[in-house]
Task: structure prediction
Amino acid sequence: MRVTQVKLNTTLAVAGIAGAIAAAGLASPAQATASKPAKPHDCLAKRDHLAVSLGKSWPAGNTRVDQAVVIGSKATAKGKICLLTGRAKVKLLDKRGHVIRYGYITGARGRAAQVGAGHEAVFHLFFGTSKTPHVRPAKIRVTLPKGAGTYTVSWGKAPVPTSKIIKVDGIKPYLD
Result:
């Protein structure tokens, strides 16, 4: 008994509690030192390989449209997760890449959203549509907050904004 106690005291002094638990065979060193999962870091363009795309659009009143913009990660297979907070800046572009003039106003607040490993973020654009002729956007340039990058994405078949103002909501978790 005395030898075991001396070995245990020595193990505690050298390796700490985790090492003692592992030495006693109660758990592996990895299990003994396991703690909370790492907190996600702020998303960065080069590190997290983000991808931006237009999501579904749907009516938001008689002549208004809610256009979703979805943010995911190409690095999801690696299990990495990053955190997006704040508000994206957007510009609609014509087919030559020139900015189409719209006023942009702040919409609803967002909240922190995880991106990667099965998580996506989204923000919404709200604008009016009517039969009034207007330049059809070819692309949208999205600048994400806090160094998460600038992305240019095809506008595709999304509705044409005819209002002079586009409301931009904050980023939030997808399907929230």
